[in-house]
Amino acid sequence: MAVDSEQPGDVGPWRRVLIGALVVLAVIFIVIMVVNEAIIPPLIVFALVFAGLAYAVARWGKKRWVLIVATVLAALALISNVPFIVEDLTHPETAFSFIPTVISVLAAVVAVIAGLGAIFGFAPSLARPLGGAAVAAALVVVVVSGFATAGVDDAEAQPDDVTVLAEGVEYPETLAAPAGTVGFFLDNQDLIRHTFVIEGHDVKEELPGSSTKRVEVTLEPGEYTYICDVAGHERMEGVLTVS
Ligand SMILES: [Cu+2]
């Protein structure tokens, strides 16, 4: 035991930070599913993989290949989620989208750095400050996003408005409106953000989580498709008939 527990260039602190980051990743993928109110198979796989990797690093973390697998998979998780990450990061006013996304990015970045630190034997004294900085950054993000979310103003529906309900990451399949200037009352009942886009028309409204918004649009008679263009929300689509 004493023979192999202290290697030249002790990687213990980096391994501990790596394990912590992998656990955070596993948990955050579950959180993202919960706030999306949906079973998202790739996220279940990610969660299981990162929980397994955390265990593997704790158990066999002296084996270099275990560290390499954990580091590469953390990097891949980061890269494969870029389309979701970029959009969410520009919308701090939806805390339930923004905070889990930022935390997942921080955890993945920390996992990659800590993994490299353990593999290549970076100075162990740097490991704890890295973990601490990530936790501090996460706390700042929670506070900033919490204030931004609380500051979102709701709208009030007008008598002739067409109500568009976003609920359970679904839009109504059909809507009807008279030609001319139509008021749309956009009601996002979900915790996460959506958009209201009328295709072929100059309408794109951002809908923060649990908020309402009103928009007036002048429409010619015809059929229009409305969607939410948030990545992964392709099923949020319906047809608006204007007559
Ligand atoms: Cu959406």
Protein architecture, described:
The chain has 243 residues and is α/β, with parallel strands linked by helices. The protein contains seven helices and eight strands; from the N terminus they run αααααααββββββββ. The protein has helices at residues 2-5, 12-36, 41-60, 64-80, 82-89, 95-120, 127-150, and strands at 162-166, 174-177, 180-188, 194-198, 203-207, 211-219, 222-227, 237-242. Helix 2 runs parallel beside helix 7 and helix 6 packs antiparallel against helix 7 (127-150). It starts with a helix and ends with a strand. Residues 1-9 have low confidence and may be disordered. Bound molecules: copper (II) ion (CU). Copper (II) ion is lined by residues 169, 194, 228, 230, 233, 236.
What is the domain total for the residues?
2
Largest sheet: 5 strands, mixed
Uncertain runs:
1-9
Instruction: Report the strand count.
Output: 8
Radius of gyration: 23 Å
Overall 3D geometry? Answer: elongated
% residues in beta strands: 15-25%
Helix percent reads 40-55%
SSE series: HHHHHHHEEEEEEEE
Query: Order of strands in the sheet with the most strands?
Result: 2-8-7-4-5
Question: What is the CA–CA distance across the termini?
Answer: 80 Å
Structural class: alpha/beta
Total helical segments: 7
Mean pLDDT: 93
Bound molecules: copper (II) ion
Present the secondary structure layout.
Elements lengths: L1 H4 L6 H25 L4 H20 L3 H17 L1 H8 L5 H26 L6 H24 L11 E5 L7 E4 L2 E9 L5 E5 L4 E5 L3 E9 L2 E6 L9 E6 L1
Parallel strand pairs: 1-3, 2-8
Antiparallel strand pairs: 3-6, 4-5, 4-7, 7-8
Bound molecules: copper (II) ion.
